[in-house]
Structures are given as structure tokens and as C-alpha cells.
Specification:
Helix 1 runs parallel beside helix 2. The radius of gyration is 21 Å and the shape is globular. The chain folds into two domains: 259 residues, TIM Barrel, CATH 3.20.20; 71 residues, Orthogonal Bundle (Arc Repressor Mutant, subunit A). A nine-stranded mixed beta sheet has the order 7-8-6-5-4-3-2-1-9, with helices on both faces. Strands 10-11-12 form a three-stranded antiparallel beta sheet, with no helix packed on it. Strands 13-14 form a two-stranded antiparallel sheet. With 403 residues, it is α/β, with parallel strands linked by helices. Helices cover 38% and strands 19% of the residues.
Length: 403
């Protein structure tokens, strides 16, 4: 059911914000759908299977979330002009467990409350087993532009280790359905699962490239406290993911994807070209404004971060009572904001302007170049850009730039 929410300051019952909106700042919308058929052993997201939904109903979820959309419209209209959404992202969970009509109503609610830019990127995450021709066609008709399919692996024993229940063949079916409906396609992969070899990972990468997606995400498996995987490791049933093997897997991904015409633009993301980058995720990395709707969803408006109560029942109860569903909020100080900027912006291909670093960080540049962690040519032009080795050691680079 996800990790514990962070601590923060209390939120007024009406959710009001004492900030001024920059009308030129990009605004994005995240819509969290917290339902899954099966809980994957590695997953730490705020998701629920049917037997965990005491006090909440999946068939009423769209109506509940739309109450928060109206609440957000009221809060934002009090502090500045309403900005149309440049990106909308349905995440989860498995958004496609809801009927396409529910997702369409949610998108229509966003459109009515804020507007959606004509060229907006509208993404929906999907499990391969939930995508049919009819589903993809209905989503496209509603205004969805992009389907992000949770492939994870093409190797059955790796999928089993991850508790993924879809058949590998269904990934192709889902991709073809999305293509037939005119949707862009992103495939999401995970590497470093228990028992996964380098050749298994090569098989998955080659299968991914053959499907010719527009965008590929590849994330190293992380053992999150409180998950089934963490318990299995603690009991000695499976081994902890091997850091060296995961590094080899990352380098293999970068080689194979690069030779197939995909360009890295963020440490864990590759795209055919700049037009097919995830604009929604780029907004996160670049510090834009967004409102996250749904239980446990996080938001960022004009420097204030806030997050909703976790359980769908508590979320619904707050909204039914006319209260904000936010559990707490915080406003990072200048030092925390500067650290976050370095942490996020060094991860993207364009990098971070050296001029934004404090003296200690600037003095670290020469050593980082000598260690092969940042590109010397980019530094000459005033930017910190990670080399591939630097991407593998991104946390160490950030520490050097901020200590």
C-alpha cells in the first residue's frame, strides 16, 4: 500500500494556498488511479487490490476524483490565473483497470476546470493485459495521445520473479492496439530482478527494440522497505540485486538502445527524438507546477509541496465532507530547493548551468571531469552534463557538487 507519507505542516481544511502563481510557469496534471489486480512484490506505490479496498469502491472512483478537480479549481482561482494543462498523466496502479469512459470523464473534468492545451501530452499507464483495440480507440477518442505500457521484461521467469502476471506476447498486442489508434507508445522496463542474467536482460532489450516504441524507460530494481521483495530478501529466499550486475545491465541498455536510434535524455529514459520525450516527467525534473489528484498523490504549486491522504476511503471521506484531501505540506527553504535543483537537473541530458552552483560545487568540476563523471566539453560551455559513468554514479556527482 505504499510507503509512509512524509511529515509536514498542517493544511487548512479548505486547502487554501498563500502563494502567488507565475502565470508563465507550466502547469501539469497527474491523476492517480490506485487499483491493481495483483500487488507486485517490488512495488512501493500507493496501490490497492480489490480485497484491500475496505470502505472504498472502484466504480465510484472517477466521481470522487472529480470532486478534487473542482476543489483544485477553487483553490487555484483564488491565487492567480487558471492555466491550461500542458501535460496530463494517468498513473497508478493500473489506470486501464477503470473503464475507458471513467478515464474520459476524468480528463473531461480537467478540461472543464482548467483547460488542456491543444498540443498537450496526455499519457495513460497500462498493463499489457488490459489493452484491447477497443480500449485504445476509446482512449484516443477521449484525447489521450500516449500509452505507457508496463512491459518490465520479455523473459517469463523474470516476470514471475517480479510477480507480473501478463504474458510477454500481450505486450505486442497492446503496442499494436495503441498504434492502430494513433497513440504514441512508451515501454517501461525493470532490470536486476532476482535470477535475471545479463543475457535475460539482452533478450528483453532486443524484444523492446523490435516493437519500435517511441520511448523507453529502464529502471534498476530497488528494494523498498515494507515490500514483499524486502521480506523475501530478509528471509534469505532471494538475493539482494547485485550493484555491479545492474551497472553492466545499464551499460548494455545504453549501448543497444543507442545503436537502435534511441537517445538518452534522462538517466533512466531514452526517446527516438526530442519530440517523444516524456514532457510530463520533464516538467517534474525542471521544477514546473503540477497538481496531483487522487489518494497519496503529491503536488507542487509555486514552491509549495503537498500530498493527499493515502487510503481511497479516507480520500473520499475528506472530499465528501467538503474538505481538502491534503494530509500535509511543506515549503522547502532556499538551501533545500538548490539541492533539489542539482539533484534533478543533473539527471537530464541538457544538464545544469554551472552558474547555478555555489563556490564549493564549482570547485569540484575539474575533479569530476578528471574522474570521467561529467563531460569536459559541456563544462567549457558552462553546463554540468553527466557522462555514462557519471549517470551510474549520479548520486556521488550530486554530493560533490553540493557538499
Amino acid at each position: 500500500m505504499g510507503s509512509a507519507l512524509p511529515l509536514g505542516e498542517p493544511v487548512p481544511r479548505d486547502g487554501s494556498l498563500e502563494v502567488a502563481i507565475d502565470p508563465t510557469a507550466q502547469f501539469g496534471v497527474y491523476l492517480h488511479v490506485p487499483f491493481c489486480r495483483v500487488r507486485c512484490g517490488y512495488c512501493d506505490f500507493n496501490t490497492y487490490t480489490a480485497d484491500e479496498l475496505r470502505g472504498a469502491r472502484q466504480d465510484q472512483y472517477a466521481d470522487t476524483l472529480l470532486r478534487e478537480v473542482q476543489h483544485a479549481r477553487h483553490v487555484l482561482s483564488d491565487i492567480g490565473p487558471i492555466r491550461p494543462a500542458a501535460t496530463v498523466f494517468f498513473g497508478g496502479g493500473t489506470p486501464t483497470l477503470l473503464p475507458p469512459g471513467d478515464l474520459a470523464r476524468m480528463l473531461d473534468g480537467v478540461r472543464a476546470a482548467f483547460g488542456v492545451q491543444p498540443d498537450a501530452e496526455v499519457s495513460v499507464e497500462a498493463n499489457p493485459d488490459t489493452v484491447t483495440d477497443a480500449t485504445a480507440t476509446a482512449l484516443a477518442a477521449a484525447g489521450v495521445t500516449r500509452l505507457s505500457i508496463g512491459m518490465q521484461s520479455a523473459v517469463p521467469h523474470v516476470l514471475a520473479a517480479l510477480d507480473r502476471t501478463h504474458a510477454p506476447a500481450n505486450v505486442r498486442t497492446a503496442v499494436e492496439a495503441a498504434r492502430g489508434a494513433g497513440l504514441d507508445v512508451s515501454l517501461d522496463l525493470i532490470y536486476g530482478a532476482p535470477g535475471e542474467s545479463l543475457e535475460d536482460w539482452r533478450t528483453s532489450l532486443e524484444a523492446t527494440v523490435l516493437l519500435e516504441p517511441d520511448h523507453i524507460s529502464a529502471y534498476a530494481l530497488i528494494v523498498e522497505e515494507g515490500t514483499k521483495l524486502a521480506r523475501q530478501i530478509r528471509r534469505g529466499e532471494v538475493v539482494t540485486p547485485d550493484d555491479d550486475l545492474q551497472a553492466d545491465m545499464y551499460e548494455l541498455a545504453d549501448d543497444l538502445l543507442g545503436s537502435a536510434g534511441y537517445e538518452w535524455y534522462e538517466v533512466s529514459n531514452w526517446a527516438r527524438d526530442a519530440a517523444h520525450r516524456s514532457r510530463h516527467n520533464m516538467a517534474y525534473w525542471q521544477g514546473a507546477d503540477w497538481w496531483g489528484f487522487g489518494p497519496g498523490a503529491h503536488s507542487h504549486i509555486a514552491g509549495v509541496r503537498f500530498w493527499n491522504v493515502k487510503h481511497p476511503a479516507a480520500y473520499a471521506q475528506r472530499l465528501a465532507a467538503g474538505e481538502s484531501p491534503a494530509a500535509a505540506r511543506e515549503r522547502p527553504d532556499a538551501a533545500a530547493s538548490a539541492l533539489e535543483s542539482v539533484l534533478l537537473r543533473t539527471r537530464v541530458r541538457e544538464g545544469l548551468p554551472i552558474s547555478e552552483l555555489r563556490g564549493e560545487g564549482r570547485h569540484a568540476i575539474a575533479a569530476l571531469i578528471a574522474d570521467g563523471l561529467i563531460e569536459g566539453s559541456a563544462a567549457v560551455h558552462g553546463r554540468v552534463v553527466l557522462t555514462r559513468q557519471g549517470r551510474l554514479l549520479a548520486d556521488a556527482v550530486v554530493r560533490a557538487l553540493t557538499d
